[in-house]
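User: Last request for today: this protein with magnesium ion, please.
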Amino acid sequence: MPTSDAAARLRRSLTSPTLARPVLAAGAVNAMAARLAIEEGFDALWVSGLEVSAALGLPDANVLSARDLADVVTALGRVTERPVIVDVDNAGGTVEGAARIAADLVRAGAAAVCLEDSAYPKCNSFAAHTTQQLAAADLVVRQIERIRKIVGDELVIISRTESLIAGMSLELAMGRSTRFVEAGADAVLIHSKDQTGGQPVEVAARWTNAAPLVTVPTAFPQLTSTDLGQAGYRLCIYANQFSRAALAGMRAAARQFTREGTFRPSTEAPLAAVGDLLRVGEPDALSCI
Ligand code: SPV
Ligand code: MG
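Assistant: Here's the final one, the structure of the complex with magnesium ion:
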């Protein structure tokens, strides 16, 4: 079971003056991905709206329920005690919905939620067919206040603004984020899809608030976690790379079967590796954060 102090450990890491590098979180849609991430040196896990939606055959468009997310958190908690950060999108665009999701996720063992300011219904930040709209900042402020009231310090709250995704200015993004911190957010994510990487670097240079900065570097992989740490980010969330790697691996295996009429035994992932990896009931040591 995840320990109830996972939120405290994550909060301490994000604010530690001696943190040598950013906290690294990997998207983990199931226990196997979670174990792999921890064994390979990630500190925390991200329950991604995109990955969970894709796994369930749903669009990343406000379709997931609190139960869908809590089930994944529970699965990850079976095999790791590392902090689990949950992407709750806009929490359905209501204050009471945000309270319910947060309370259920605490019970499931989550350490953090990431609440974004997209208008209901949201779309994925990288959706090609539509543009993200923003919710009223007042609504998001009330959602954050309500979450804090109902869960106290048991969850780290990351406020995420979709301002830059929606084509708004950096001033607007920073103004909204400042309000979200004043409402009780512990950390701030100003999401960007700028492939040059210039925008996230500028965000970090201009963010002078004490609340730690978080990034999801999907669009700018040329910036390493070291680069992002030097720019000023305290948490890097690699949101969906494992699902995309799994897709490539599954496709390669299926094509090899089509060519040869049988699956060649994998030296990289023999059957025994699955059991070895999961070690159900033996959570990892709490060494890192
Ligand atoms: C997710 O993983 O669902 C995210 C991150 O919100 S991204 O899709 O990269 O915007
Ligand atoms: Mg998402």
